[in-house]
């Protein structure tokens, strides 16, 4: 049983629920969580323009359409733009109207400790919704040069603050700034996706997982994959040590994360937890 905790429709050539299901069948994915990603026109860069089907990003309507057709395989997460009026009310309404399973993908240039986000976390707490957060800092260099101007949530210290301030809310961390924090001196590094092996678990991300059981790691996307590559021989220990708080996700509709995990020969218990049991608990589904 494999659940992809981080998926979309209307992005990267996956236009519809049918496309997503076809892709999942190709890679042996049983179920997926489908996230919205709302964007303001001024926030769309050339890459997003080329990969998004809709210039407004991924809206709740598209996600619900896909999930309503494939009810037993696709489950909706919804995250309205926190800068908009009534955003937290919209989340509450969609729990009752549309049976959303969580808040996500949070990917907005808003600091996690802002009053707008605080309201989100209060709604998540009241409705027992997990929240998936894309964390990204601006002004960092890409692998091929150039710098990112987009940012979301703030730096990892912001994540630490909100995870500790809302112990009843289940946070799922994702994105470059989460995975930069696997090494001790990540704040000094100028790269969005730093390279080089890590030799121990001294980064802030591990300290947060170890001390706060409401913080979970989504390994999806290039940022997650890059971190797994950087762990190298430490990767089995990473999965063994943090097995209760890691969730499998792809974000990019490929099988690269699965290939990495499957080569590690992890114990069946670890495999079960990361591939489906942890996310199943978070979204309140039966195993
Ligand atoms: Zn995503």
What percentage of the residues does DSSP assign to strands (E)? 5-15%
State the shape: globular
Order of helices and strands: EHEEHEHEHEHEHEHHEHHEHH
Determine the N-to-C terminus distance.
9 Å
Give the strand line-up of the largest sheet. 6-7-8-9-10
Number of helices: 12
Cα-atom radius of gyration: 17 Å
Assigned CATH architecture: Alpha-Beta Barrel
Major sheet, described briefly? 5 strands, parallel
Question: Overall pLDDT, averaged?
Answer: 95
Into which percent range does the helicity of residues fall?
Answer: 40-55%
CATH topology call: TIM Barrel
Tell me the domain tally.
1
Low-confidence stretches: none
Bound molecules: zinc ion
Secondary-structure class: alpha/beta
CATH-wise, what's the superfamily?
Answer: Metal-dependent hydrolases
Number of strands: 10
How do the strands and helices of this protein lay out in sequence?
Layout: E1 3-7, H1 17-27, E2 31-34, E3 37-38, H2 46-51, E4 57-58, H3 60-69, E5 74-76, H4 87-98, E6 103-106, H5 115-126, E7 131-134, H6 156-165, E8 171-174, H7 176-180, H8 204-211, E9 215-218, H9 221-231, H10 235-241, E10 246-247, H11 256-262, H12 268-283
Parallel strand pairs: 1-2, 2-5, 6-7, 7-8, 8-9, 9-10
Antiparallel strand pairs: 3-4
Bound molecules: zinc ion.
What does this protein structure show overall?
The chain has twelve helices and ten strands. By secondary structure, the protein is α/β, with parallel strands linked by helices. The strands form three sheets. Strands 6-7-8-9-10 form a five-stranded parallel beta sheet. It has a three-stranded parallel beta sheet with strand order 1-2-5. A two-stranded antiparallel sheet has the order 3-4. α5 links the parallel β6 and β7. It is globular, with a radius of gyration of 17 Å. The model has no long low-confidence stretch (mean pLDDT 95).
């Amino acid at each position: 049983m494999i659940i992809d905790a981080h998926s979309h429709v209307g992005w990267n050539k996956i236009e519809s629920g049918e496309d997503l299901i076809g892709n999942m069948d190709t890679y042996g994915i049983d179920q997926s969580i489908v996230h919205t990603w709302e964007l303001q026109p001024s926030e769309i860069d050339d890459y997003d323009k080329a990969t998004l089907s809709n210039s407004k990003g991924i809206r709740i309507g598209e996600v619900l359409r896909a999930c309503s057709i494939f009810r037993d395989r696709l489950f909706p997460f919804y995250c309205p733009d926190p800068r908009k009026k009534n955003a937290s009310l919209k989340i509450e309404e969609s729990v009752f109207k549309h049976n959303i399973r969580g808040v996500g993908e949070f990917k907005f240039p808003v600091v996690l400790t802002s009053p707008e986000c605080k309201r989100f976390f209060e709604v998540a707490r009241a409705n027992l919704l997990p929240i998936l957060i894309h964390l990204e800092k601006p002004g960092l260099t890409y692998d091929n040069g150039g710098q990112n101007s987009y940012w979301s949530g703030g730096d990892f210290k912001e994540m630490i603050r909100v995870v500790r301030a809302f112990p009843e809310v289940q946070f799922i961390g994702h994105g470059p700034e989460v995975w930069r924090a696997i090494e001790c001196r990540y704040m000094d590094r100028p790269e969005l996706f730093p390279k080089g092996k890590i030799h121990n678990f001294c980064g802030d991300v591990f300290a947060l997982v170890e001390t706060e059981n409401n913080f979970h790691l989504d390994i999806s996307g290039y940022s997650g994959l890059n971190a797994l590559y950087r762990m190298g021989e430490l990767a089995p220990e990473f999965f063994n040590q943090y097995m209760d708080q890691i969730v499998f996700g792809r974000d990019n509709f490929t099988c690269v994360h699965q290939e990495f995990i499957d080569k590690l020969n992890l114990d069946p218990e670890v495999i079960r937890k990361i591939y489906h049991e942890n996310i199943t608990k978070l979204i309140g589904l039966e195993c």
